[in-house]
Write a structure and sequence with these properties.
With 115 residues, the protein is mostly helical. 68% of the residues lie in helices and 0% in strands.
Length: 115
């Protein structure tokens, strides 16, 4: 999954008719949502991850919209597991989500030239 960029802005823009203003608005909403999820995941015991299925599913869709492809695919795997065997979601998967959210928040932080 590391073959994908943290944020594939070009692909996301193509889905948004190259509307940079819209992309920036969607990205701001996404980073707020991702930041909230980061706080929840860092504090949540592993055995309560299934309680966040809807929020993780929503974040997956938002990640896809902004081009956060690595996060999208990681969340897609977790989403499928939560649907069929929630007890099989691993701590490593959640750590991958946390790490990817941190990367995204870092590169989209105000003052970062990549933002």
């Amino acid at each position: 999954m590391n073959d994908f960029p943290v944020l594939d802005k070009e692909t996301a823009l193509s889905r948004l008719a190259n509307n940079h203003s819209l992309y920036n608005k969607v990205l701001v909403m996404f980073t707020e949502q991702a930041g909230e999820m980061l706080t929840v995941l860092e504090a949540l015991p592993q055995d309560q991850i299934a309680d966040q299925h809807l929020a993780l599913h929503s974040l997956k869709g938002s990640a896809g919209e902004v081009g956060a492809t690595r996060l999208f695919y990681t969340l897609q795997q977790i989403d499928q597991t939560l649907k069929t065997a929630p007890e099989h979601v691993t701590a490593d998967q959640i750590e991958d989500v946390i790490a990817e959210i941190r990367r995204i928040l870092n590169i989209t932080a105000p003052g970062n030239p990549a933002a």
